């Protein structure tokens, strides 16, 4: 009997250890040694880290995990928080598309095998995933502005195409949409039950990943919406600058910023050594490897827990990944210090910020159109907006990042309207350039709308120096 009890105890311990091992394989990323005989990547296991708290020093693995934004437990957020006597008037949402397949491949290596069909028994999963697919299959006749009407409404390739939205990306935005639904519709009744098409403003670039991300968020926000009420406008520019895209000085700032990036790379001997090692592994010139932007592909391997590629010359490994990711972090730090990107950002973000305050001002007049605006965009859309607002410490937009502008009315003083700015659920209103000092003078938990209007119309150009106080003059000043 004693032997039998010991045997059962050992069996239980073995089962527990097996469970713990499998859990660690999913949640922790442990670098493995590089095989010297060019063994198959399938024999190399890699598991993901899951740091609970932010490390005391910059950690490239931790930063990469934040960038991946793997859906997990329900997110805590500060959207919709206001004193009881404030009424929510309108909401303006800027999103980066969700997780996608790389835009570039590492030369002479096999593409990562990621499945871009939507499957119920595969993680990450969302309870509305099957219903989303079913609803999208009924939208083939929907009316979208050209060329959006030629794009697929959800990803559906067994092997992802370049830049295609993944199941992770869909789930990220279904989750975003449901979160916003719980806050803005269920709690604040932003839209009536019989909402109309003109109460939504939907705009996206002409990429399938942005359209599909917008539709996933919209489905989470308005499940089983009426296709006849949905109209996505096409935005040709990633800056969402519409008819105000011509800006010579903005392009000059961008050229100087790109030159700064190039010089920083030249100074980083560790980065150059890493590119050289990787180039030998894949047997291409270092210049060709660098031009292929390997970090884009490596992030896909990292976010999807897929081994980095191997050849007969060895394997790309975690140490290579850490060096390149660390350089990215250093580049972002220097970018903030040099201010060239700020100049680009102010001129790049002004058109879309100007459109946003225009919608807010119309809402303050009692108009009921465009109460919920959604811009489905890219990292190169959100990053300039964050910088232009003065949110220089904000992290680079992760997959499925969201930046939200809320407009509120004080019921006790109906003529007064305020705004809140939230980034990935965090209230950053008092970190913005236009309102960082307001809370020192006022007990209100929000910022007066006129602060934002004055900033966009005039004050944001102060950061550029010179005499320009409007967009046209700032874009065409000769002294730059």
TrEMBL record:
CDD domains: HP_HAP_like. GO terms for biological process: chondroitin sulfate proteoglycan biosynthetic process; glycosaminoglycan biosynthetic process; positive regulation of heparan sulfate proteoglycan biosynthetic process. SUPFAM superfamilies: Phosphoglycerate mutase-like (SSF53254). Coiled coil: none annotated. It comes from the Eukaryota. It catalyses: 3-O-[beta-D-GlcA-(1->3)-beta-D-Gal-(1->3)-beta-D-Gal-(1->4)-beta-D-2-O-P-Xyl]-L-seryl-[protein] + H2O = 3-O-(beta-D-GlcA-(1->3)-beta-D-Gal-(1->3)-beta-D-Gal-(1->4)-beta-D-Xyl)-L-seryl-[protein] + phosphate. GO terms for molecular function: phosphatase activity. It is a single-pass type II membrane protein. GO terms for cellular component: Golgi membrane. The keyword Flavoprotein does not apply. The keyword Membrane applies. Its main location: Golgi. Belongs to the histidine acid phosphatase family. Interacts with B3GAT3; the interaction increases the 2-phosphoxylose phosphatase activity of PXYLP1 during completion of linkage region formation in a B3GAT3-mediated manner. This is 2-phosphoxylose phosphatase 1. It comes from Pan paniscus (Pygmy chimpanzee). The gene is PXYLP1.
């Amino acid at each position: 009997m004693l032997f039998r009890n010991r045997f059962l105890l050992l069996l239980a311990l073995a089962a527990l250890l097996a469970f713990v091992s499998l859990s660690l394989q999913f949640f922790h990323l442990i670098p493995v040694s590089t095989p010297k005989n060019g063994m198959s990547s399938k024999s190399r296991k890699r598991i993901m880290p899951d740091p609970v708290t932010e490390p005391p020093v910059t950690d490239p693995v931790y930063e990469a995990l934040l960038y991946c934004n793997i859906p997990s437990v329900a997110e805590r957020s500060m959207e919709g928080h206001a004193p009881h006597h404030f009424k929510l008037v309108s909401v303006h949402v800027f999103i980066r598309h969700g997780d996608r397949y790389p835009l570039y491949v590492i030369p002479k290596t096999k593409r990562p095998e990621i499945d871009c069909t939507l499957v119920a028994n595969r993680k990450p999963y969302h309870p509305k995933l099957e219903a989303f697919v079913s609803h999208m299959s009924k939208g083939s006749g929907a009316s979208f502005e050209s060329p959006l009407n030629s794009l697929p409404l959800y990803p559906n390739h067994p092997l992802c195409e370049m830049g295609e939205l993944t199941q992770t990306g869909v789930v990220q935005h279904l989750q975003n949409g449901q979160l916003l639904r719980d806050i803005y519709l269920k709690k604040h009744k932003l839209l009536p039950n019989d909402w109309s098409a003109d109460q939504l403003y939907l705009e996206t670039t002409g990429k399938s990943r942005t359209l599909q991300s917008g539709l996933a968020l919209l489905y989470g926000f308005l499940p089983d919406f009426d296709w006849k009420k949905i109209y996505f406008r096409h935005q040709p520019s990633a800056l969402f600058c519409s008819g105000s895209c011509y800006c010579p000085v903005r392009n000059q700032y961008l050229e100087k910023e790109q030159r700064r990036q190039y010089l920083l790379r030249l100074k980083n001997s560790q980065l150059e050594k890493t590119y050289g090692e990787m180039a030998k592994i894949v047997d291409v010139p270092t210049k060709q490897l660098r031009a292929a932007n390997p970090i884009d592909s490596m992030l896909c391997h990292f976010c999807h827990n897929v081994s980095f590629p191997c050849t007969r010359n060895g394997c790309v490994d975690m140490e290579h990944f850490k060096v390149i990711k660390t350089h990215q972090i250093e580049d972002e730090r220097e970018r903030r210090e040099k201010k060239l990107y700020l100049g680009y950002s102010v001129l790049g973000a002004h058109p879309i910020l100007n459109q946003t305050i225009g919608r807010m001002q119309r809402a303050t007049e009692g108009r009921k159109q465009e109460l919920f605006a959604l811009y489905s965009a890219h990292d190169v859309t959100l990053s300039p907006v964050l910088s232009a607002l003065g949110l220089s410490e904000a992290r680079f937009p992760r997959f499925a990042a969201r930046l939200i502008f809320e407009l509120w009315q004080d019921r006790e003083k109906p003529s007064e309207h305020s705004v809140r700015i939230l980034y990935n659920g965090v209230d950053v209103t008092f970190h913005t350039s236009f309102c960082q000092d307001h809370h020192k003078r006022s007990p209100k938990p929000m910022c007066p709308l006129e602060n934002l209007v004055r900033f966009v119309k005039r004050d944001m150009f102060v950061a550029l120096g010179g005499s320009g106080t409007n967009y046209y003059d700032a874009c065409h000043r000769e002294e730059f």
